[in-house]
Specification:
Layout (H helix, E strand, L loop, with lengths): L24 H7 L5 H5 L2 H15 L3 E3 L6 H5 L4 E4 L3 E4 L5 H5 L6 H4 L1 H13 L5 E7 L1 H10 L7 H9 L1 H25 L3 E6 L7 H22 L4 E6 L6 H8 L3 E3 L6 H8 L4 E6 L1 H6 L2 H14 L4 E5 L9 H12 L2
Parallel strand pairs: 1-4, 4-5, 5-6, 6-7, 7-8, 8-9
Antiparallel strand pairs: 2-3
Helix pairs in contact: 3-7, 8-9, 8-10, 9-10, 10-11, 11-12, 13-15, 15-16
The chain binds coproporphyrinogen III.
Length: 336
């Protein structure tokens, strides 16, 4: 929380995106008892346990709520399933009628188990460990709602955004409101700060980036802070590159998550004066281990360590990553 407030710490706080997940045997064991991934997310006792697993094992400075960004479409009535090896499956939204049939009124009620998980995690965590809530950014969530699955280039949503921006805007508006309400409730339940994941922001062109990545995120930040002033918010516009400057200035987020492709000197000179920077070890460097970890960690600490920094990966940890590599990364960051 000190780092999110803009302080430079001698050792930066550290956590990892997807830190609870398949690279941990204790996760795989618990996961095997739930046929459906969303059932696991919606069972507060189990989701609490999964959230705490990486904290117990590694002592990260922050826990991130165990859930998924696609609980929002599910709560809106667009049923989401996860099939092994194929990722999420949704009944793709065809157009205006499908969007009008979404049910924003039932979202918060549907997400009640998540708020219970947040309460349980907060009371179980050591007081010095930050609890992060999160949501997907409207653009990224919309890409899955329109395509119904993961695609290499999110062409279906990009097509709709170009050919029928009015209809696409309606979907984004629904997601802005639902996401802001969702974050407010997470903070009220005990989340100390929240992160907005815009995994597919970088694929947008210049106009699209402003309209579909910056503007909806700006509205969420504004809505959350109008109800809960001072809420700390991390934005993760993956692939934004130089556009991260405008993203910070126009959304008003406190911290910006950077992917591993972001040049560190640019992050230091252009981003850190404007926001806390969070990142950005390449998950493949973590997977490779050894010198790749040492060199990657050292470069981040040397370049970004004299400003406000939260150490993280540049994207989520890969399921094949050995636990020993995570331990090596933590030792290197903390100098222990
Ligand atoms: O960071 C965390 O540890 C918190 C939990 C979390 C998950 N997903 C758990 C999860 C968070 C913050 C997410 C975010 C998420 N989900 C994003 C944005 C960030 C990113 O990683 O790009 C996106 C695009 C999704 C959508 C999603 N969820 C996909 C594409 C998949 C399938 C891919 C895969 O790795 O299997 C998921 C499933 C998912 N979400 C898993 C986990 C631990 C794996 C499910 C399983 O255990 O079988």
């Amino acid at each position: 929380m000190q780092a999110l407030a803009g302080q430079t710490l001698s050792v930066p706080p550290v956590w990892m995106m997807r830190q609870a997940g398949r690279y941990l045997s204790e996760y795989r064991e618990l996961r095997s008892r739930y046929p459906s991934f969303l059932d696991l997310c919606n069972t507060p006792e189990a989701a609490t346990e999964v959230t705490l697993q990486p904290i117990r094992r590694f002592g990260f400075d922050a826990a991130i709520l165990f859930s998924d960004i696609l609980v929002i479409p599910d709560a809106l009535g667009q049923t989401v399933t996860f099939t092994k090896g194929e990722g999420p499956q949704l009944k793709a939204l065809g157009g205006q009628e499908d969007i009008a049939a979404l049910k924003p009124d039932r979202v918060l009620e549907h997400l009640q188990p998540v708020f219970e998980t947040v309460e349980r995690v907060r009371s179980a965590l050591p007081p010095e460990t930050t609890l992060l809530g999160f949501c997907g950014a409207p653009w990224t969530v919309a890409t899955y709602m329109i395509a119904g699955q993961t695609t290499p280039d999110q062409r279906p949503a990009r097509m709709m955004a170009y050919s029928d921006p009015e209809t696409f805007q309606k979907l984004v508006d629904i997601l802005v409101d639902a996401s802001a309400d969702y974050l407010v409730r997470q903070v009220k339940a005990g989340a100390d700060a929240v992160q907005i994941f815009d995994t597919w922001a970088g694929i947008l062109d210049e106009d699209g980036f402003r309209r579909w990545a910056i503007e909806p995120t700006r509205r969420i930040v504004e809505k959350v802070r109008s109800e809960l002033p001072g809420t700390r918010i991390i934005g993760f516009p993956r692939g934004a590159g130089a556009r991260a400057v405008a993203y910070i200035e126009e959304t008003g987020i406190d911290a910006v998550g950077i992917d591993w492709m972001m040049p560190l000197v640019f992050a230091r000179d252009a981003l850190q004066p404007r926001a806390t920077v969070q990142g950005n070890l390449d998950p493949i460097a973590l997977l490779a281990g050894g010198r790749a970890i040492d060199a990657g960690v050292d470069a981040i600490l040397e370049t970004l360590g004299s400003g406000p920094l939260v150490f993280n990966l540049g994207h989520g940890i890969l399921p094949e990553t050995p636990v020993a590599h995570v331990e090596a990364m933590l030792k290197r960051v903390r100098g222990t």
